[in-house]
Every structure is written in structure tokens, then in C-alpha cells.
Amino acid sequence: MIVHLIDGTYELFRHFYGIRRGAKVDPPMGAALGVVRTVVQMLETGATHIGVATDHIIESFRNDLWDDYKTGEGIEPVLYAQFHPLEDALMSMGVATWPMVELEADDALASAAHLAAADPRVEKVCIWTPDKDLAQCVVGDRVVQMDRKSGQIRDEAAVRAKFGVAPEFIADYLALVGDSADGYPGIAGYGAKTAARLIERYGHIEDFPPEVLGGNQAAALLFKKLATLRVDAPLFTNVDELRWNGPTASFAETAEKLGDPRLVERLLAVGTNT
What we know:
Blueprint (H helix, E strand, L loop, with lengths): L1 E6 H12 L10 H15 L4 E7 L21 H4 L2 H10 L3 E5 L4 H13 L6 E5 L14 E4 L6 E2 L1 H8 L6 H8 L14 H11 L7 H4 L3 H11 L23 H8 L3 H12 L1
Parallel strand pairs: 1-2, 1-4, 2-3, 4-5
Antiparallel strand pairs: 5-6
Helix pairs in contact: 1-2, 2-4, 2-12, 7-8, 7-10
């Protein structure tokens, strides 16, 4: 089986800023509708095991570690208002959905990939997000990243080609170069090539000789903690829990609220073909 893990928060932003389509309803639900349509399309094209991770709130335990870590500040109210309705719609649709509070959606994706990959029945795990944090979860060509926008598949060789380091060193790499999207700066003077060269020579930051980072070692280790995704979220006990078995009875009302009643027919058609 192939397991598909979707970054619901990323998809919501992608549809809100990049696509802007869908029937008009009040309140506006175009981005949430776009994400739901994307998942429906995946089911129509053969996906059987799907899980969607979302940021139920933007903040996480990392905000307690670094004051400037990303928050929900600045998110357009019309977009923010679609976070929870998207979660409700996905659950009504019968899709395994993980709304994260203490952890982030990225942690859920990392945990789900870890759990799914442990099952020998799983042939491949596809993580649907271009977020560079998730590159640390890639394993050979069995656990890969999928970039829906570009159509690229990022396996271990592609991670090495893009970042200059293996997936297991992505957290070290990000700790040195920083991640503006997440709000931590990295270590001043350490660009991508320098970071990759040092990691290639010494390995993990913990193994760097003290003189390499000097007074910046504590900061680098903190940033690595911010960059390291958790893989211990207890999302499911059996990968069969991710198998889609059809929408719930409430989905017809959900589809109406989203402005696309035809979604019910499309899902029922999928059910008859599985």
C-alpha cells in the first residue's frame, strides 16, 4: 500500500493565495473547499490511505523555546477563519485528520511517516509538502516528499542534491543556515555551502569540535532543537486506520456549506469503485 500524508495547513495557504477559486459562500470557504477538492481528487485517482495534519493553533512548544518563533500574527482573518472548518470538513469526509496543538502539523507528518514506515506492508510513504523541514523524514525512495506545485518528488538523492547533506542532517543544516519561515536566524556567517561543508566533515552539530562554532554552539543546538521534528505523536496504532472507507452521514451538509454539493456524488462514485 501507499500512504499519503498531507500538510493541511500548507494546502490551505496554497489555495488561499495561489488559486483563489471555488463557489462563493458566506463566510468565504474557498481555500477550505480547494483543499477538500484536492483530497477528493486524490481518492478519485487511486489513493486509499490518507492522513491530513493541520495546525489547530499556530503556536507550539517551540514558542516557549524561542521568542521569535512563528505565530499566527499577520494571517488574514478570512484565511484564519477556515482553519477549523477545514478540519471539520475532512473528518466529515471520513479522512484521518490530526489537528495539532502542542505540536505542529510538521511534527504530525513526521510522526505519521515514522509509524507508517515501520509497517512492512507499506510500499511507500508520500509526504505532500515542499517544506524543507520534512526533508529530514525522507528515507531512500520509500519515504519521499511530494511537491504538488512543481510536481517534483524528493527522495534521498534529491535531498542531497538540494541541500548538500543527507536527510539525517537536515536539522543540523537548518540550525546553521536558519529558517525565516519558522522565525529563527541560524548562525551569522553560515551560508548553505559552509553549513554543508562542515556537516560533511564533522557530522552532527553535537560532534563539531568546540572551536568550530565557538560561542555560537549553544545557539546552534537550540536552533537544531527547533528544527528537529518530533516523531512520537501517538496518531494511530495501525496503518489500516488511514484507509478511507467513505464519507460520514454529515458530509452532505458539509459539502453544502462549502458550496459544492457535487462532492457527495464524487465520493460516492469513488466508494463504488474501491
